[in-house]
Amino acid sequence: MDIKQKIEQANEEAFRRLCAGDPVLVDVAPAGEVLPGLKGKWITHSGPPIEWKRMCGAQKGALIGQTIYEGWAKTPDEATILLEKGEIHLEPNHAHQAVGPMAGTISPSAPVWVIENRAFGNRAFCRQVEGNQQFGDYSDEALKGLRLWRDVWGPTLQKALHTIGGLELKPIITRALQMGDELHNRAIAASSLFANEMAMAMAKTELAKEDLLSTLGYVTHHDLIFLGLSMASGKAIADPARDIEYSTVVTAMCRNGTEFGLNVSALGNEWFTAPAPKVDGLYLPGYTADVAGLDMGDSAITETVGWGAFTIGGAPGILSLVGGTPEEALAYSREMRKITVSTHPTYRLPALGFAGTAIGIDIRKVVQTGIVPIIDTAIAHKDPGYPKIGAGLVRAPLECFKKALIAFSRKYDIGK
Amino acid sequence: METLVSKLLSGPVIAINLGLKSFGASLEQQGVEVVQVEWAPPAGGDREMMDLLDDLL
């Protein structure tokens, strides 16, 4: 068998594993109890590895907020000193089976969604999704949402989940994709379906009435609550496709606001990075592109498994948020088929004649065609201290894929 | 002597334009029907990448 055949066979296996993914929400638990390999004072963040000094403004702001939230500092200045001195251990989420939206910060007391991929037995985690602290806002008002999640909403959902023994997410994802979601910046249908399930679960659970009402209000009025679940599901689905010899399939894409990074199956956990790109987007009143930070967040794990902008043709409602026309959106979804192994047998889009979602990004096809993955994303401010300022579309940098192809060729002694 | 080329050009011509649209545009300005084919050199013409892809894809 020559190398081309070996790659094709390996990519078919990666594709099989990606399609077999069966995410089940099994718990909501404090990160310190479930994320592996972390002790003491630590915060994990989005994107490839990066030290404090090189972090963008929004990620620094989110870390300052997370430090105050944990009670390790009382003021932003105190938090900054601790972080500058390296007294809080910083690691990427991906190194600990986790993902986080935008700055993506996770710390020990913060509850995370716990997803188990029942097809392979692996678990993945994601923090709560909100519109303030994860964008770099460290105000007391921004941290209030994190405290409520830790003290009320997280524990209440945990009890309810234990009552029903977990919640299968594949049926919700399948239906939501047919209801106009793309599960990245538009997750309204999935969030509503999830709220239905959790409302019943909470009703079956012995809860203090104020906790029940507060949590019910939270899950039924949070249009993006499911993003945390789709991200953790994406991570749980993608991880079993890692470490397949000869596979050129991408197993993670993420950004920290400074760099964009990706992993490739046959190349394990090695990051291939390039400068984070600018997002082409629409801005909330009071903000413009001049104050925007660069592309940021682990949420591109949704595109990695074929959701997000890969399925934007089926989610025209999101265009009012990120820009573009329905025709362009359909073209994006069709274009992504040119750089993927195939289409998903279960996750199908009515707008594309019930075609499956494009899945299994092949670095060879990206480099050959010059077509890079498209991602829809939110936008943070370039400086610390601000909430969400906009949303838009962005392309992954081609340079990452070229670097990965060179590394792959070296590993297998090609081109000498 | 009539060659294949002269025979071809003696009647109406439909041009197939590969890649850069501007080449086809100049023909269109002269009233020639042009069919545009989207094409780009593999790997954007990057020789190192093209060589690797020859072995891998």
Topology (SSEs and partners):
The complex is a heterodimer of chains A (416) and B (57).
Chain A (H helix, E strand, L loop, with lengths): L2 H18 L2 E8 H4 L7 E4 L11 H13 L6 H9 L4 E4 L5 E2 L11 E7 L4 E5 L13 H25 L2 E2 L1 H8 L10 H16 L5 H12 L4 H14 L11 E7 L2 E6 L7 E4 L4 E4 L12 E2 L3 H4 L14 H4 L3 H10 L4 E10 L5 E7 L1 H7 L4 E6 L10 E6 L2 H14 L5
Helix pairs in contact in A: 3-4, 3-5, 5-7, 5-8, 6-7, 7-8, 13-14
Chain B lengths: L3 H7 L3 E5 L2 H9 L3 E5 L9 H10 L1
State the order of secondary-structure elements of chain A, H for helix, E for strand. HEHEHHEEEEHEHHHHEEEEEHHHEEHEEH
Widest β-sheet, arrangement of strands of chain A: 4-6-5-1-7
Kindly provide the radius of gyration of chain A, computed on alpha-carbon positions and rounded to a whole number of angstroms. 20 Å
The count of helical stretches of chain A stands at 14
* Highest-level CATH class of the largest domain in chain A: Alpha Beta
User: How would a crystallographer describe the biggest sheet of chain B?
Assistant: 2 strands, parallel
Ends distance of chain B:
46 Å
CATH superfamily of the largest domain in chain A: Enterococcus faecalis V583 domain
Q: How many structural units, i.e. domains of chain B?
A: 1
